[in-house]
Amino acid sequence: MLASWSVEHRPLGSGGLHVSEVTYGNWLTHGELVEREAALACVRAALDAGITTFDTADVYAQGAAEELLGGALRGVRRESVEVATKVCLPTGEGPNDRGLSRKHIMESCHASLRRLGTDYVDLYQAHRFDDRTPLEETLLAFDDLVRQGKVLYLGVSEWTAGQIREALDLADQLGLPRRIVSNQPQYNMLWRVIEPEVLPLCQREGIGQLIFQPLAQGVLTGKYRPGEQPPDGSRAASGGRAPRFIGRVLGDRLLDRVQQLRPLADAAGLSMAQLAIAWTLSRDGVSSAIIGASRPEQVSENATAAGIRLDASLLAQIDDLLGDLIDRDPAKTAQMMSVKPEWAQPAWPNPSLR
């Protein structure tokens, strides 16, 4: 059963699609770190909280995440949820098992629909920019999927402002409707590289932001403390790929500063996680923040960040406290997969999947 809209909804950009302020995503959880029953319980908790938007990708757990999400949503009225997935990153060893060619887009979309158990996805996103494929080929393939009714809206993820601008201009030249309604970037209190260029462009063009990592891999929850081992049960202490992603933000200098956010959260009557998510949702141009979870109670707690409004003085205190640890370098939008922030310790590895 869906809740009676306890989570508020926002338009995704200037289009007609509305998404829940908090989106449930299953990167690094479903099919990897979380057992099937726990994953199903998390989806049920999301629905109970009023979350209607669910984000996944063909590459997450090599398709297992899509399959699990599709199974979890079976029996839910299809029209009452918004399902988003992605295409571009490698799903196999072959040269055509990646990228944004017509071949891979068409094959990947059909495979995603089968795994999700649906006739269409609400939002289909280009997981990265593909400089090996002519952009015209990519845009026409996406447009065909929309015309076929297999995709309702289109988005991109971690594209630079220049790449988004190029796609919009080319769509105009080709006489295509401007179907890109969303961008999915990493964005949080610490990582603000989209602010100088991507956000202003998207706001002018009516493209909404579907944010991932609002909690900076859990670091902004305050559960990782300087000089201490990661707590049992956390992603950083788990097996699989999670520790190498989280290791990029576990420097003691950063963790010490994050702990100083706790009195601000306490004064506002919020948990650290709620503060971080509410901060993301307070930014202009943001339509929704994606959360992941390994336990249903995490979903329930984080979902309550929807609807929380932070006052200007609290936002200013956060900026003052984090100060020189905030990264706003727009060049790192394109380099996000390999750049090591000044505060990362140990060195930021090269995550190939997100």
UniProtKB/TrEMBL annotation:
Transmembrane segments: none annotated. InterPro entries: K_chnl_volt-dep_bsu_KCNAB-rel, NAD(P)_OxRdtase_dom_sf, NADP_OxRdtase_dom. GO terms for molecular function: oxidoreductase activity. One of its GO terms (cellular component) is cytosol. Signal peptide: none annotated. Pfam families: Aldo_ket_red. Residues 22-321 form the NADP-dependent oxidoreductase domain. It comes from the Bacteria. Keywords: NADP, Oxidoreductase. PANTHER family: HYPERKINETIC, ISOFORM M (PTHR43150:SF2). Belongs to the shaker potassium channel beta subunit family. This is Aldo/keto reductase. It comes from Rugosimonospora africana.
